[in-house]
Design a protein that fits this description.
It is built from seven helices and five strands; from the N terminus they run H-H-H-H-E-H-H-E-E-E-E-H. It is an alpha+beta fold.
Amino acid sequence: MEPQRLEEIIGRYPTPTGKILGILEHIQREMGYLPKDVLKLLAKRLELPLSELYSIATFYSFFTLEALGRHVVTVCMGTACHVKGAPELVASLKHHLGVEMDETTRDGKFLLTTDDGEYTLTSARCFGACSMAPVLRVDNKIFGYVTPERIPSILKQFGWEGNHH
């Protein structure tokens, strides 16, 4: 993001320090995520410690510090989903999308994107759809009672052609 564009976004908020969430949301909406260089520029411009922006960006689950694929596949890892097979769904998705688990955070969260940038595989704590466990979401569409065998047909609805492994 060009510094001039960042200034335009900041300019939309009369008291920038009180509107950090709005500014961050605007940047993510425009760029798809919150790039480190843009956060550094914003911290400098607003005279805030970079750690404060990171704190906000990592606290709210709707922000992401990494570029996401065109389609985001999120597996619910809540208790009901976990017990009813969510780990098997993750294994099947990793296989079909051709992504490997590299890093996970302390709470087991992961963010894996295919080399072509088409799909990002991630997890969430709970979707509130426990009665349909295990559950996954692709973009904004929820799928319940998912089995590893259903993964290919679900992915095909989002342009997957089976060429990622």
